[in-house]
């Protein structure tokens, strides 16, 4: 009997260690990170030592006694990665989760991103959030002009820019949404499938009938409305399918469903005995299919934090149909043009713990919203018409627009263009309405160091309206 008690006590010690290991898996696979480290006691599993995954060094005062292959057998290894930033454990941390389009690397091409999702955690308020970004979003990719957002990774890899594909993707999303992004995680689909299989599948609530083609086979499976448990290949199909289920918008919502399902599976302590037994296999799948710039210490900090965040305090949102305009690219591709102020509101739903970052939209009057936002504006004359910036100031300043500079633009502009360096959507909307501009004339170039929030390059079209 005493022996049983000793075994039970020993198991409790091991359980604590294993629990944190499994939480690390959750952070990697769901709130996502790219390191996994653990050591088991006694007869539960074999002893493990701290090892690192590709993308960041282990800095724990010891040398790692073993190494694990970081070449993803069916995936894509980025050429380089952004340097890991320090984290104090208290500040909000934001991670860009990327899944690559396997059709690209299967055909030997440098891949685009198939999935982009921002995952954010606020340790002080014990809140977290997920924001999905449709891959057809038409945005400025720094150094490459406008393109679909899913091309950022490919451009960074093709041209070997600093930080590679992950770095350029992070910079693009950061500029688009106006939020700092510290880390990235790239997950290969093969690893995704195998991880879900190792944890026994994932439970999701299917809102309507949907037919899936299981990844890796030609078999079609029709899911009926209700709660179902999906194996890895069907979970991947469910998360990726676009046809007949809301396209990218419904797809993004399903991806978030799957992530929350992984979270629930790992934090379900009834599953712990099974997960403990499978921990080595889970680890091997993670080590071969995930790349990140998170450090070991950071991932362990996140792992300890995750069980302290209640499910109702994890917000989720998709940049959906009410925040975009459907359009065509110059070469005829279907694209989504973001509506800046509406994108900002969606972003604030996820990233704000005590109300919106900007002024509350309690009034529909665009002038009042603009004044409350207090954006700084530079008026720049992009024409040969002398005094155009001053004349424009006389028109706009009585409304309360905070014009801090009148100067010449960097060249001649046929069409007036608004350059946005800070997240000030209400001022942008005011300028569009006041000056009669199209949303397509708004260029997002997030950069807080510029010295003003918005620059308006006045074009010949504006000069013709204001002789």
Automatic annotation (TrEMBL):
Residues 112-266 form the Cell envelope-related transcriptional attenuator domain. It comes from Longilinea arvoryzae. Residues 61-82 have a biased composition (Polar residues). This is Transcriptional attenuator, LytR family. The chain crosses the membrane at residues 20-41. Keywords: Membrane, Transmembrane, Transmembrane helix. Residues 375-462 form the LytR/CpsA/Psr regulator C-terminal domain. It comes from the Bacteria.
């Amino acid at each position: 009997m005493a022996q049983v008690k000793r075994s039970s006590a020993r198991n409790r010690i091991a359980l604590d260690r294993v629990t944190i290991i499994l939480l690390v898996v959750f952070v990697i696979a769901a709130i996502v990170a790219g390191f996994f480290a653990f050591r088991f006691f006694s007869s539960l599993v074999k002893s493990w030592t701290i090892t690192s995954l590709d993308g960041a060094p282990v800095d724990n005062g010891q040398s790692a006694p073993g190494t694990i292959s970081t070449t993803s057998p069916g995936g894509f290894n980025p050429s380089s990665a952004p340097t890991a930033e320090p984290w104090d454990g208290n500040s909000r941390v934001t991670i860009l989760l990327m899944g690559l389009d396997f059709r690209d690397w299967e055909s030997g091409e440098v891949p685009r991103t198939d999935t982009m999702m921002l995952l954010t955690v606020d340790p002080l308020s014990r809140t977290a959030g997920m924001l999905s970004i449709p891959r057809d979003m038409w945005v400025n990719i720094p150094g490459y002009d406008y393109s679909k957002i899913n091309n950022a990774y490919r451009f960074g890899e093709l041209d070997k820019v600093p930080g590679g594909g992950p770095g350029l993707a992070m910079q693009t999303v950061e500029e688009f949404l106006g939020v700092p992004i510290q880390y990235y995680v790239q997950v290969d689909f093969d690893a995704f499938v195998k991880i879900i299989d190792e944890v026994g599948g994932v439970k999701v609530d299917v809102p309507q009938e949907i037919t899936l083609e299981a990844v890796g086979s030609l078999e079609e499976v029709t899911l009926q409305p209700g709660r179902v448990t999906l194996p890895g290949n069907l979970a991947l199909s469910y998360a990726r399918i676009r046809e007949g289920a809301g396209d990218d918008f419904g797809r993004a919502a399903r991806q978030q469903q799957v992530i929350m399902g992984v979270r629930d599976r790992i934090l379900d302590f009834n599953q712990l005995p099974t997960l403990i037994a499978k921990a080595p296999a889970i680890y091997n799948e993670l080590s071969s299919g995930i790349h990140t710039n998170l450090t070991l210490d950071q991932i362990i900090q996140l792992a300890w934090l995750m069980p302290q965040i209640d499910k109702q305090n994890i917000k989720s949102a998709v940049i959906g149909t009410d925040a975009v305009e459907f359009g065509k690219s110059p070469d005829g591709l279907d694209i989504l043009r973001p509506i800046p102020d509406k994108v900002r509101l969606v972003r604030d739903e996820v990233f704000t713990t005590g109300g919106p970052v900007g002024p509350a939209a309690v009034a529909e009057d665009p002038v009042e919203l603009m004044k409350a936002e207090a954006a700084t504006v530079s008026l720049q004359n992009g024409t040969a018409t002398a005094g155009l910036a001053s004349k424009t100031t006389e028109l706009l300043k009585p409304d309360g627009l905070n014009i801090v500079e009148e100067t010449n633009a960097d060249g001649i502009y046929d069409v007036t263009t608004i350059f946005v360096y800070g997240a000030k959507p209400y001022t942008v909307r005011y300028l569009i309405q006041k000056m009669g501009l199209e949303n397509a004339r708004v260029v997002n170039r997030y950069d807080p160091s510029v010295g003003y929030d918005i620059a308006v390059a006045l074009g010949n079209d504006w000069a013709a309206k204001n002789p």
